[in-house]
Amino acid sequence: MQLSHVNQQGEANMVDVSGKAVTTREAIAEGELHLSAEALAQVKTNSAAKGDVLAVARIAGIQGAKQCASLIPLCHPLALSKVDIEFTLDEQNNRIITRCRCKLNGQTGVEMEALTGVNVALLTLFDMCKAVDPAMIMTNVRVLLKQGGKSGQWSRDEG
């Protein structure tokens, strides 16, 4: 299989999607922020000095997904119909699991938008909590699901 963003001369190339069918496309991406118990407790109790950590990170993640084409040079600007950011506070493992779901009716997939949304949400969580725990680690950013278009559905087999 050949890389789609490289032309015959080996140059960067924005893929022409004009001939592709408009279908409902969806992607879900996930990532984790590992942080101290103290920082996680402040997120959970909404007592962080900067304010409502999850609310700010949710809005940032949505904005990030919508700005994907401005950040990643060969991504198409997309009119997303839905961006959803979810957080799971895992106190046993001192982490916040972040998921971004993006959806649209269009000619190209939305996995890059979902990945961008997750990363921006994680970066915002980090920014909101860094005064309490500057040693936080962002890990395991990945696509869990993509569906729609010619290739149909793909999901990560995690076991």
TrEMBL record:
Active-site residues, record numbering mapped to chain: 127
Catalytic activity: (8S)-3',8-cyclo-7,8-dihydroguanosine 5'-triphosphate = cyclic pyranopterin phosphate + diphosphate
A single GO BP: Mo-molybdopterin cofactor biosynthetic process
Keyword Lipid metabolism attributed: no
Record keywords, A-Z: Lyase, Molybdenum cofactor biosynthesis
Binding site for substrate: 74-76, 112-113
Leading EC class: lyase
Molybdopterin cofactor biosynthesis C (MoaC) domain span: 14-149
Keyword Lyase: yes
Pathways per UniProt: Cofactor biosynthesis; molybdopterin biosynthesis
Coiled-coil parts of chain: none
EC number per UniProt: 4.6.1.17
GO MF annotations, alphabetized: cyclic pyranopterin monophosphate synthase activity
HAMAP family linked to this entry: MoaC_B
Function noted in UniProt: Catalyzes the conversion of (8S)-3',8-cyclo-7,8-dihydroguanosine 5'-triphosphate to cyclic pyranopterin monophosphate (cPMP).
PANTHER family: CYCLIC PYRANOPTERIN MONOPHOSPHATE SYNTHASE, MOLYBDOPTERIN COFACTOR SYNTHESIS PROTEIN A
Membership in a protein family: Belongs to the MoaC family.
Subunit structure: Homohexamer; trimer of dimers.
The protein, known as: Cyclic pyranopterin monophosphate synthase
